[in-house]
Amino acid sequence: MLNTTKPVGEHLREWRQRRRMSQLDLALDAEISTRHLSFLETGRSQPSREMVLNIAERLDIPLRDRNVILVSAGFAPVFPERRLDDPALAAARRAVDLVLKGHEPFPALAVDRHWNLIAANAALTPLMTGVDPALLVPPANVLRLSMHPDGLASRVVNFNEWRAHLIARLVHQVGLTADAVLLALMEELRAFPVPKGAERGGTLGHDYGGVVVPLRLRTDAGVLSLFSTTTVFGTPVDVTLSELAIEAFYPADAETARALRALAGP
Questions:
Q1: What Cα–Cα distance (Å) separates residue 59 from each residue in 34, 94, 172?
Q2: Tens-place pLDDT, residues 73-122
Q3: Nearest CA to 197 among 155, 146, 162, 145?
Q4: Up-side HSE of residue 83: CA atoms within 13 Å toward CB?
Q5: Fewer CB atoms < 10 Å away: N or C end of the chain?
Q6: What is the value of pTM for the model shown?
């Protein structure tokens, strides 16, 4: 989270630069003059509450950080942050559970902004065989779990390709959020050793048309090839919901689909 003691203008300038926008570009988007934007960034003018929200929307600033900027400008936070078990979020939690359950027999999980596991469906459990129980203690981090030597790393057939994919996602996420926890997680993952025998190539002869990066996981049911999609709430005004994502895995071939259905049982 950003420092609430920092002047509001510094926050706005840093987010503009992070989004690689010029003052002219942002001023045009926000429908204000470049002179006024310059005055806001340097502190010569103080923004109204509506102006802070307007600029934050144009810069696609995360809701959590919009609250910080509002406080820096002398206003109360606008976006509430509730626990997922709060009664006010009951409908949203039911929706998450419905999506997870409905995706079976294929694995799916819900994560927070730091990739900590919030919930998962029953199809994920068989894939965790052999994982160090310490990595599953809440809050279990799914990226750490997938790349840790005592996690899934030794069973990921295309480890180098999968590692590059996850690191690239984190780099993008850090760029969007400036989250120090994600930055530390990225450095931690980069320091993990490559499992012995990890393949240097791509998908080991499997052609996925360059459309997806599969996770090829060695299991008791054979090598499963999976690709994932990410689902987020479309118009959240709650910080918790805005940071929640569902990762749903799909079989990348017919053999994997049959194996997952068999693991689920009758």
A1: 15, 31, 15
A2: 999 999 999 999 999 999 999 999 999 999 999 999 999 999 999 999 99
A3: 155
A4: 3
A5: C
A6: 0.88
Structure tokens of 186? 């990225």
Q: Concatenated DSSP letters for 74-97?
A: T----S----TTSGGGHHHHHHHH
- The C-alpha atoms of residue 28 and residue 37 are separated, in whole angstroms, by 10
**Can you tell me which residue has the tokens 């053999």?**
255
Residue with tokens 């936070």: 77
Question: What 8-state DSSP symbol labels residue 116?
Answer: B
Q: Could you count the other beta carbons within 10 Å of the beta carbon of residue 49?
A: 13
Separation of alpha carbons 79 and 236, rounded Å: 9
DSSP-derived 3-state class of residue 13? helix
The structure tokens listed for 79 are: 């976006």
